[in-house]
Amino acid sequence: MNVDGRPLRTIWPAADGWSVEIIDQTRLPHELQTVRIESLEQMAKAISTMQVRGAPLIGVAACYGLALALRRNASEAAIDRAAATLCATRPTAVNLRGRITELREQLLARRAARRVAFAYEFCARITDEEVEIGRRIGEHGLALIEKAAALHRQCPVNVLTHCNAGWLATIDWGTALAPVYRAHLAGIPIHVWVDETRPRNQGYLTAWELGHQGVPHTIVVDNAGGHLMQAGEVDLCVVGTDRTTAAGDVCNKIGTYLKALAAKDNAVPFYVALPSSSVDWSIASGREQIPIERRSDSEVHEVAGLASNGRAASLRLTPAESPAVNYAFDVTPARLVSGLITERGVCEASTEGLLTLFPERRG
Amino acid sequence: MNVDGRPLRTIWPAADGWSVEIIDQTRLPHELQTVRIESLEQMAKAISTMQVRGAPLIGVAACYGLALALRRNASEAAIDRAAATLCATRPTAVNLRGRITELREQLLARRAARRVAFAYEFCARITDEEVEIGRRIGEHGLALIEKAAALHRQCPVNVLTHCNAGWLATIDWGTALAPVYRAHLAGIPIHVWVDETRPRNQGYLTAWELGHQGVPHTIVVDNAGGHLMQAGEVDLCVVGTDRTTAAGDVCNKIGTYLKALAAKDNAVPFYVALPSSSVDWSIASGREQIPIERRSDSEVHEVAGLASNGRAASLRLTPAESPAVNYAFDVTPARLVSGLITERGVCEASTEGLLTLFPERRG
Prior knowledge:
- Two copies of one chain form a homodimer.
- Chain A is α/β, with parallel strands linked by helices and 363 residues long.
- Chain A is 40% helix and 19% strand.
- Chain A is built from twelve helices and 18 strands.
- The first copy, chain A, has a seven-stranded mixed beta sheet, with helices on both faces. A four-stranded mixed beta sheet of chain A has the order 13-10-11-16, with helices on one face.
- In chain A, a hairpin with a 5-residue loop joins strand 14 (302-306) and strand 15.
- The radius of gyration of chain A is 20 Å and the shape is globular.
């Protein structure tokens, strides 16, 4: 999507032909800075510190990390070590694991001398795939926004989203925001309520994206969504997901579950947009089978922003002696999800719904 | 309650016999500073900027503001002007209005020369009343915590609270926290999950209070409560309220409704603690009849904390061009409330429940 009129992506191969450039998302929304990644270690750190973040993006980033590792050592043992390092960066993400497993298998089927070139080709291919997936999710989700626009004469259509599932979380387009961008480009008046998404405030990334694309939006604290829905100010919710079970349970950023409850209580449709790579076909129950990543408590105690001198700074928020705990995700049960927006279409959040779109997963 | 072993209240008459001292709650949790208030204007500002906050406390503070105004001019016209100024400071609070109406009526029934002394006596009396109300709420709520402690052998009892309804929101004891303090003093092992409560982070006041009293607690972001309840980590929720309708709808800090939904979905009891002065007997439906205060958007855009040099500082959080909106309260429908903890006992959140405890309100 655009930043100041210029098309930009979240990750791309550098002009030198081997290193990789990323947008450092920890600097956003106050500063747009790119970082050059030259090693496995740098990429693993970029993923764990969330310089790159979002399920689809970290899948691609991890594969580039493996490609960088191979330049040093393309042996099977080195591949396994690098794969383990990358899979450990974010325990909840299923498609990071999926992408790394896929690449590893294809690498092992090739001679060591061919592996580096193949890894880069693989990364370029899945990058194109992810962009196409976002484009299609946008297309299928657009129909839901058109329906909301037709249902009432009030303009604009009000969409609420949590966290960032925009182009910054993918390569381009995004997942939850792809339908929003499509609707905006199609001339449908649309306005997005952006949850700030404590503790890391990824909502500000969403606001930054939307602002640069010219999409009207308003930031609200995570507490506000229930009131907005009660007041009839939300036509539909669309969020992303880090992992979706085969039964349609959705593991997404902490707080998603609360918005889904409010949507249900106020008869607001609650959709989850996802590339099918984030479906974990091996599990059914999100609450029982998905381990919830617990991140550093310092993300709660401290916050980053812009000081009055225009410089990036951070503050201690909490009382000195008080402990905090920081669960990064929660599970929204399928019963609260109106539908899943995938690259193949929209389906019910259920095993049957998913299998209708992905029949190759039957049996 | 105690701060560093020393009993402290939120507001008290100064040694000079006429001015009033308050804890400046905007400096907490990082600095304990008291401020001397000498005029109506200073008190109105202290209330609107939330140097004093919490329904019971601002009722008392407003009456002191009226007493200070009378020292300058004790005429009926001056009383009316001062009352209007004070009632406009926080539109949602019903007991501020109630207390001011009560004091105004009693003042008008007296000669101008007697009014100043009467106003100070009135303030002293309602201060004692509020402390006694907190004590009783604690007593009645203690039974609920004892019940939770008896229900399972897991120690401690885990209570989740939102915002600050502790002694800082009252004069002493608090409302939602009064039962917690009583349980802690009674030796029941108890642990409190403290919602940080964006945008103003009053949860840090709760954490500060609990820490100084020695009550184990953990700060969580507002997004986390749903996950904690799903995971069985919450035995009961107790929150305060700014206004309760005659039908038991509860208007409390924005985000309360989301926690009540999660409590319902996970069969966690959800209690609201309140002095009966915060019941608005004139209205039934919270959603339709309570105007929701919209506070400055800057509370969302900026945040206060402690810089690395130990000084208080604030940061800009949001992207420069993105608008924000800041609704301060939401309404939790009575159907989501397990019970109301009042100074007269615990009742069902319904007209019938309230009238059982307050039969003088019938008809």
